[in-house]
């Protein structure tokens, strides 16, 4: 492998960048909906094996950037879908959006290579550890974007249960360790590689929870209602009442559940303007609490993307306003300055962008308990799921994934919802406008679901919550300390070997 790596490093720069970008795309096969996690391990292994043969720090950085570009371009390909909803106006932006997202994500991986070459040149382990740190940084900086983390590829495996101890970044650490093991198999340290892979596979077997089994006890029944409103029709006055009728009709059928949940912005009117109609909506739930998404304005004309809980007779019991908004989708960063330049972008809602909410929740669901409310984008931020000293009964996520079509986006969003349930040890009720709506138990298993592209409703028992997980109590701190410990150890070892 050493000779092959040296020969490859001496090839033309364009060829090298293309190869690393292709390896990145292969690594992206581990993300939903393909879930080919061995492809991610193998691609990482090859990259780690080639890493020591870079002829310079600059070369190593560009190799890492190309690898990241290929990975993010493939994994985030769904980002073009929102621009195709109104293709005549926004379609031209789609390729630029994908390029910028991939290039921006790749900068974090290039930063990992730059840091690694500073601390311990030609050390694949240092690069791998720095990669974990860069993924953590990507999750936090500039409001964060923890989508398609390397650790997300474990969702369908037993290793996903490790998220209860260290969250998504522990999963990323396990992934890069597997990549290092493959690199070791390609070099002289084959025994070490086999041992590491064996231990990880054994851990996956031990942690695997098995099938969910039949619900036991007197569990609340939750009705998940999916109207299937395509984004190009969702706000069309000719269709809004059609989708609203679907919601009320499906809610009113069959046995009365203990809770009815509709998706994000399910009601296509301002909350302020339908006070007299809340009773009509509540009647479809027949006495059960009704949860749905809706937009509203406050006394200062500020707009909010909200989740509301409505009781019998239309009594408004709780309001939660979305706190973590989508940059350029729900608000424009630096909007005042950009407005002066004449730029409005896509983040226009009723003439203005949304305002972030100030109250984190939870919301109370009568007869069930406290729920941590999450609206769409908020469900991807593991570290932002917070609550008071009283442990909630469930996670409650409403979303509109119609923006992302029926390709990779909704599947990846669902995968992250499964991880949030595991991390917190809480069941999650996830209701999506066009799918995938699902009941998820505290082990991340889907116990009931409505597929993409259909309208309908499903009644599902709400699984019992587990005890507080280590991650719910400690967050990322243990993983951060562990990675820092390894980095410092690798740094001082490299210093000692160079003396």
TrEMBL record:
<keyword id="KW-0808">Transferase</keyword>
<dbReference type="InterPro" id="IPR045378">
    <property type="entry name" value="LNT_N"/>
</dbReference>
<feature type="domain" description="CN hydrolase">
    <location>
        <begin position="225"/>
        <end position="464"/>
    </location>
</feature>
<feature type="transmembrane region" description="Helical">
    <location>
        <begin position="169"/>
        <end position="186"/>
    </location>
</feature>
<feature type="transmembrane region" description="Helical">
    <location>
        <begin position="127"/>
        <end position="149"/>
    </location>
</feature>
<dbReference type="GO" id="GO:0016410">
    <property type="term" value="F:N-acyltransferase activity"/>
</dbReference>
<keyword id="KW-0812">Transmembrane</keyword>
<dbReference type="GO" id="GO:0005886">
    <property type="term" value="C:plasma membrane"/>
</dbReference>
<keyword id="KW-0449">Lipoprotein</keyword>
<dbReference type="Pfam" id="PF20154">
    <property type="entry name" value="LNT_N"/>
</dbReference>
<feature type="transmembrane region" description="Helical">
    <location>
        <begin position="92"/>
        <end position="115"/>
    </location>
</feature>
<feature type="transmembrane region" description="Helical">
    <location>
        <begin position="61"/>
        <end position="80"/>
    </location>
</feature>
<keyword id="KW-1133">Transmembrane helix</keyword>
<keyword id="KW-0012">Acyltransferase</keyword>
<dbReference type="Pfam" id="PF00795">
    <property type="entry name" value="CN_hydrolase"/>
</dbReference>
<dbReference type="InterPro" id="IPR004563">
    <property type="entry name" value="Apolipo_AcylTrfase"/>
</dbReference>
<keyword id="KW-1003">Cell membrane</keyword>
<feature type="transmembrane region" description="Helical">
    <location>
        <begin position="12"/>
        <end position="30"/>
    </location>
</feature>
<comment type="function">
    <text>Catalyzes the phospholipid dependent N-acylation of the N-terminal cysteine of apolipoprotein, the last step in lipoprotein maturation.</text>
</comment>
<dbReference type="InterPro" id="IPR036526">
    <property type="entry name" value="C-N_Hydrolase_sf"/>
</dbReference>
<dbReference type="GO" id="GO:0042158">
    <property type="term" value="P:lipoprotein biosynthetic process"/>
</dbReference>
<feature type="transmembrane region" description="Helical">
    <location>
        <begin position="477"/>
        <end position="494"/>
    </location>
</feature>
<dbReference type="InterPro" id="IPR003010">
    <property type="entry name" value="C-N_Hydrolase"/>
</dbReference>
<comment type="pathway">
    <text>Protein modification; lipoprotein biosynthesis (N-acyl transfer).</text>
</comment>
<feature type="transmembrane region" description="Helical">
    <location>
        <begin position="36"/>
        <end position="54"/>
    </location>
</feature>
<comment type="similarity">
    <text>Belongs to the CN hydrolase family. Apolipoprotein N-acyltransferase subfamily.</text>
</comment>
<feature type="transmembrane region" description="Helical">
    <location>
        <begin position="191"/>
        <end position="207"/>
    </location>
</feature>
<keyword id="KW-0472">Membrane</keyword>
<protein>
    <recommendedName>
        <fullName>Apolipoprotein N-acyltransferase</fullName>
        <ecNumber>2.3.1.269</ecNumber>
    </recommendedName>
</protein>
